[in-house]
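Friendly challenge for the regulars: who can give me the structure tokens for this chain first? No prize, just bragging rights.
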Amino acid sequence: MSARILMVASGKGGTGKSTVSVLLGGRLAAAGKKVLLIELDSGLRSVDIISGVYGKTVYDISDVLSGRCEGDKAVVESPVYKGLSVISAPYEGGEVQPEALRRLIGRMAPYFDFILVDTAAGLGAPFQAARTVSDMALLVLTPDPVTLRDGRIAADELVNGGCKNVRLVVNRVGPASFGGAVRDLDECIDTVAAQLIAVIPESAEIQHSAAQGMALPAGCLAFKALDHLARRLLGEQLTLAVRW
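First reply, four minutes later:
Bragging rights claimed.
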């Protein structure tokens, strides 16, 4: 076993990147894959709540990368999504060094099928460190002009840095998303210049499950969109059904 490394990024904050990371990890795990989610967003930690491990973590990614503990001591399995394990970011402080992250992922890769690296928003140290170790980048963006512009900057940074496998996830899409400042999904794709891999609808179910650390209900449209995203990453050829 040698893990496939996916970074989950965004040009700006507030796009739902961490929520998508957890829910995608949950769907990959439901398909029988062993998944590790590494959160790099120091000071804005949220993966522990969304994945249901809040209060169960002793060590975080800062402890691991600084050498204060071995990686396996910081790994906590989600009680909500069987097969998904998490290394949380610290509540504050902590630096992400590319070489330290590379060493950690090298040690963890034999034990997992997928490692998802949830970066901080923007192009800072967590983004740059994740870029150096990832096989694919998922850019999670919302359909508004500022986020799409920043997403294009992030996409260009990835491509110019040698990452040719960049995919676009348009999140929080609803009936009022298009026809105004952003015309349609084609404008999202053209602005960011990345291939679309998923459209996730605005969802009260996602908001509720993320806030409560509970599983996303299987019957909702957002669940189906995330399940299809996971299946595409596993190699299935699925038509992109856009519903919201």
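The longest helix spans residues 145-160. The longest strand covers residues 166-173. Your move, everyone else.
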